[in-house]
Amino acid sequence: MNPEAAPAGMAALLPADIAYPLSCDIGTWSIEDGHVIYVIDCQRSILNHKWTIRRRYNEFAALNRELAPYGMDFGLPPKKTFGNLKPDFVRARKVALQEFIDKVTVHPLLFCNEAVLNFLEAPAIPDKNEENQVAATHIRNFRDLVITKRWEENGWRYCKLFYQVISQSTKNMYVYTWLPYGRIRPTQPGNLIVIFEFLRKLKFPYFLSPEKVMADRHGIGLLTEMKPRGSLRDRLFGKRPEGSFWEKYNVQNEIVPLADDEAREVAKDVLEGLIALQKLGVPYTSIHCGNVYVTENGSRLSEIEQCITNQNTMHYPSMIKNKYVNTIDNMMVINFGHFVYEMLTGIMVFPEHDAITALSRLPRDWQYFLQRIFVPDKKYGLPSLCGLANDPLFENITPFVRDCYLSAPLVAKALLETIRQKYTQRFHADKAAFNERRRIDHFQELIQSDAERNRRRELVLAQLRNNSDNTK
């Protein structure tokens, strides 16, 4: 990486700033020691972080091999042994490599993949060895608990760590997850304990409560009883909890969808849980099939405590672009929409760029339901969670918890409100930065267009003619 391209404040970045989309432009190229070197300008546009890297074709090929388990064809141009230094060939290959890297970085999940981040030498990415030491220390504080295995790449987010843990006395198995804080630390770790204690005592049927919660200045860890059937996502793909995220949920793998009645029950349970969290002031926006567990007694939301890390969700970039998303309540609605779409199709991100086509492939009742979220009324905007819960889709679904009154202690409520405010302020700042970048790009595109150049040329010629007439 070219250090001169990095802004002065780069070193002060929190490592977890990886969940922002990347863009890369292959600029110049040169031939050095018989190899073509491509110069790539990289940028996180929302944060305005820029840096430059140099890569050979073989390094692109190595990245392609590492991404192969996800089952996508990124269109890497084939290797050529002879004539690969000719300028015409290099220019054509540069275009093909640009298309390859565009497909990788535009993907809503892959920009957080470890192989991609290492290839791009993305600044301030977490040091996994350091994160591992911090996470493991908390488990070692409990003599009865032993880490038996670390689950490599078990999640889409590079900086989140997963472990298999056993109790030596009971032989019970647990999953331990560790997630560092996002760009803005929500509050002091001591304050978090107040919130965790409050959530632990709730014992609300729609929540999957962890056995232990740990927090320090680095992040938040959760120890949860292992569910052999795994999450709802595991059930859809027929996988066990352990294993690589990219291999388990390979886009070529088929899913076993839920029966329609069960899908309605799961969606209604998740909605009831979200409404409860909304009333409590918990900014739970990480809503997807990997965080939902279906039990005999209904569906439950997990990892509620880790939503307080202020980490971006996988849908954060699309929310930045969405003019209807401005509050945490809006975020909960839009992420719930993505969850429902994943539950029905196995596809984790709703294709908002072609919403009508995507909706047309769903059962009719679900089409209308998701249309309210992804093609909202222009006058009224996004529906509320309560509005969605009262949709005719759920008229025959009876929630298994009735008239449950929830309230948070004043101290916990005040802390949660501060966390919500910080998250909302960051979101609005990122949205403003994105809109400003889009305005600048549009302006530059405009002034470089043929029509604009011709317009300026005519203005100059008119001014010259006017000056000529005045001198006569």
From TrEMBL:
Pfam families: PX
Biological process according to GO: early endosome to late endosome transport; endosome to lysosome transport; protein targeting to lysosome
Subcellular location: Cytoplasm
Cross-referenced Gene3D superfamilies: Phox-like domain, Transferase(Phosphotransferase) domain 1
Annotated PX domain residues: 16-127
Keywords, comma-separated and alphabetical: Cytoplasm
Single annotated GO MF: phosphatidylinositol binding
Gene Ontology cellular component terms for the protein in this record: early endosome; late endosome
Chief localization: cytoplasm
InterPro entries: Kinase-like_dom_sf (IPR011009), PX_dom (IPR001683), PX_dom_sf (IPR036871), SortingNexin/PXDomain-PKLike (IPR051837)
Designated name of the protein: PX domain-containing protein
Upper taxonomic lineage: Eukaryota, Metazoa, Ecdysozoa, Nematoda, Chromadorea
